Target: Helix-turn-helix domain-containing protein
Amino acid sequence: MSRTVAMAIAPGALHPWDLYELGVVASIFGTPQPDLADPWYELKVCSVDAQPQTQPIGFGAFLRAEHGLDDLLTADTVIVPSVAAECVTAERELPPELLDALAAAHSGGARMVGLCDGTFALAAAGLVEGRRVAAHWVHAETLAKRFPGIEVDDSVLYVDDGDVLTSAGMTAAVDLCLHLVRRDLGAAVANQLARRMVIPPHRSGGQAQYVDRTVPTHPADDLGVVLQWAVEHLDEPLTVEALAARANMSPRTFHRRLHRSTGATPMQWLLNQRLAHAQSLLETTDFNIERISRLSGLGTATNLRRHFASVIGVTPAEYRRTFARPASMG
Model:
């Protein structure tokens, strides 16, 4: 059975953390595991220019790409890792020959994979129109605005849409690549590979547990003062009417101003702040769930668990196991 994986490297300088995704692909698909499956995958690193090519990728690093775009057309799976930041913001367009090769590979039956903002390349090639894709929550709004014909989901770690798969940022690349191994070679092989990598074979929850829910950076001054006060008094009963009065606004004006500044209603914003405080307490203290519920203004442990499951996607206990900082606990 042929298991050729082609990793398409777009030109341009990458951020240092983008090397992580290149390493993930190389580690999972480019490192033979004959005791797990033989043959394993064959990985080809492909670039826009004719092979072989040493491509600068920023911060003094170079990538040796031994293959050109023609190898995308014969691959079983084509993976596009992160692209340069200016390609995400559309300050610079991706090379048309790369986009044409991606489209041709897909038409030829290749399984297409976008890791983090590599999905921008799949979208620019017209491969995700009308589809649901995963995106890092930082880039989700930009992706949705640039390509309004796709459904962007920033709540999940990855999306498997059959012949097109996409992941959220950085470590979610591991989740998606292990999922590909699971699809191809079965759960037992994927689980054993995850064990060798000292990572869970499947992570609970989605991106919601990683989203920043802090006070907006530049709210209007009068609104910002009230929001900061609210964050410092989350353990007290807080109502929209009381916050509006503190801001010297009517509840209706307060609602409109807050929504314009944060994109959330007052009650949504307040719940996000309570959950953010609960997350911080779970990370940095050994307080029990009842106490954290009271300190965050969520009342009872039942309320905390319900909102965590609904918004964060994991239980408070699972979140604590993942993010607790033992040195800080007291």
